[in-house]
Amino acid sequence: MLTEEDARRLVLAEIEGMRGCIEYDLQILRVEALPFGWIFYWGVPRDGRSGQRPRLGGNGPFLVDRENERLIRTATCVPVARQIADYERRLRREAHARNTAAKRAARQRSTATPET
Predict the structure, then answer these.
(1) pLDDT of 81 above 90
(2) What is the reported pTM?
(3) Backbone phi, psi, residue 62, to 5°
């Protein structure tokens, strides 16, 4: 299970990999806690003189799942709230599939004839 600090290191490593393509100083700008982990918004800090921030294309935030240690880069063309809801639905489907498989395995074990 990840801590927020572990998640931050994952995101920073991902951002570091983009530094060769982007000439600006990239950093995490904001972090929000979610039921399953965190969302990390990243980009270029505001310019101290003008107060402006350069616009980057493709800098959708990262979702980090604390349980399964997934790092998911979100799209910029879909609202963040929708992507979070989609991921939460995915987690529920995966949990349901695990539960179904566990029940099936338990039934098979209980109906198997013991060898003598």
Answers:
(1) yes
(2) 0.78
(3) -105, 135
